[in-house]
Design brief:
InterPro entries: SAM-dependent_MTases_sf. With 290 residues, the chain is an alpha/beta fold. It contains 11 helices and 9 strands. Helix 6 packs across helix 8 and helix 7 packs antiparallel against helix 11.
């Protein structure tokens, strides 16, 4: 929640609001993306990511998860077909220019596109196949947010060796995710004719269903606490808006209405020092290519 957290194209309304995409990308990279760091660390530790890892990150965004893997010695490739502004920030992080005094790694690649564009960007057959694939954008908080993911995973599978772990991520049960109540505001405003909009609780087998549709074999899972913590209500609002999850609500109402109701929804999570704290639990599934 990109971390969000789910790509904004999952929830676009017919009247998509005009936004400053560069400002949004910065808010994502500087405020929201770090919320899933405990999840990335847990997955990398469990799978022993290191110098022998060749990682393909699907929907890599501004590249924090890739940077963490690279810091462990992994060779990383990130692809993202729908967020060029975030991908530009990923290039700043992972491919610094020579003027900065840091040499870019020759085995780091960032591709604006999908898995089908990766082979051409790899440059040499030695870069393939990958032995770890990650899809870190969480699913399971709104209806239809897994649409297209199975297809994306299916396209990535031929780039990976047989038995390669593929990591999928989903929101935990609503009762263990304080942010659920805030996200309900977005779906309620986007679909006022239904009392809860397109909100639906995360289901225990969401990730397994996606894996089966993609032709992957589930092979273990885990849960990780990922609290969303912000300096103040304004930072919390900027971070959550950067996910794109509120775009449909803005299109159905207006920015002022969304800002008002978002602030109200965040108020119960505001602590005495003004910070905002929302405990959440995320679930990850490790599936393997056949």
């Amino acid at each position: 929640m990109t971390p969000t957290l789910v790509h904004s194209h999952h929830l676009h309304a017919s009247a998509t609001p005009r936004v400053d995409l560069w400002a949004r990308a910065r808010d994502w990279a500087e405020i929201q993306e770090r919320m899933l760091v405990p999840l990335y660390e847990a997955v990398y530790e469990r799978l022993e990511v290191g110098t022998g890892t060749r990682l393909l990150g699907l929907g890599c965004g501004s590249g924090l998860a890739l940077l963490m893997a690279a810091s462990r010695g992994a060779a990383v490739t990130g692809v993202d077909p729908s967020a060029p502004e975030r991908l530009s920030l990923a290039r700043e992080r992972l491919l610094p220019d020579a003027a900065g005094g840091v040499r870019a790694r020759t085995d780091t690649r960032l591709v604006e596109g999908g898995p089908s564009d990766v082979a051409a960007a790899a440059g040499s057959p030695d870069a393939l196949p990958y032995n770890l694939v990650t899809a870190f954008h969480p699913i399971g908080c709104v209806a239809g947010d897994s649409e297209g993911l199975s297809t994306l995973l299916g396209a990535a599978a031929p780039l990976a060796a047989r038995g390669t772990p593929v990591v999928l991520v989903g929101w935990g049960p609503p009762e263990r995710c304080a942010t659920s109540s805030v996200l309900r505001v977005a779906t309620k405003l986007a679909d006022p004719l239904r009392s809860t909009g397109s909100w639906r609780p995360a289901l225990r087998d969401d990730l397994e269903e996606v894996a089966h549709r993609a032709g992957l074999k589930p092979d273990g899972s885990g849960r990780v606490a990922c609290p969303f913590g912000y300096a103040d209500v304004e930072s919390a609002a900027r971070g959550l808006l950067s996910t794109g999850l509120f775009d449909a609500a803005v299109g159905a109402t207006d920015q002022a209405q969304v800002d008002k109701e978002l602030a109200e929804a965040l108020h119960p999570h505001r602590r005495r020092d003004g910070t905002v704290w929302m405990p959440n639990v995320f679930r990850y599934l490790i599936a393997r290519t056949k």
